[in-house]
Amino acid sequence: MFSQSIKISSLLFFLIFIGCSSASRLSTNQDFEPVAKSSFDSIMTQIPNYTESLMSVKGKGRAIVSEPGNNDRITVDFNANRELSLLDVKNRIGIEGGSMLVDSDSLLLYNKVDKYAQKVSITDGRATSLNELASLNFIYLMNFTVQPIEMSSIYQTDDSYIIALTNGGRVYSSKKDGTIQRVEQSPISGLPYSTLIYDSYGEIDGFKLPRKITILSADKSSQVVFQIRSLEINPSNLNLTLDIPSDIKIQRR
Question: What pLDDT score was predicted for residue 109?
């Protein structure tokens, strides 16, 4: 039970980049036209960046999971600030399976069904199927941002700007409104996720955020479509405490 919940929530957070073999350049052809450096600042300014104003979120979502041998729908309650993300996972009939508390270095898992807890490094890709989930803070997942130091070059198509990152990733943004459409990670990055696809942007309290995020695993064999059903921006009451019974010893890997 919880293993399915774990897979779901991990895929929920699969976040970022695929398919870029060069760390600094894209091939130029009739589809990709380089952008002059003089335009970089104006392009980056157009991309929604709520680093200073989006401090916490709370809500509910549904993850539709497709992976080898498993297709499922999972409900996820989430609370997050810029340091921690807490996810509570339920199956399709509402039975709570487990919780996960994610920080910048590790994830703490509590299996409420089998009664065990485990703490693993977010870089330990094979320790648990949750490694994909913890790769990014939940707020950063919703509002993916690019810092100037991470940017190598920019290309364009008729509809999009393609930002090439120094780590081999690519970020696609809309020419129309600057929203992030897609993020790809280099296959040599070693990260447990590959691609994020953003859809269905809406505005809430002045923030333009996606309501649908499609996440692909590193090997592209698994896919999760995460749909946000309800969302509170900078809520006054935020739960970031993972309550583990005192008789359950936390395993460390």
Answer: 86
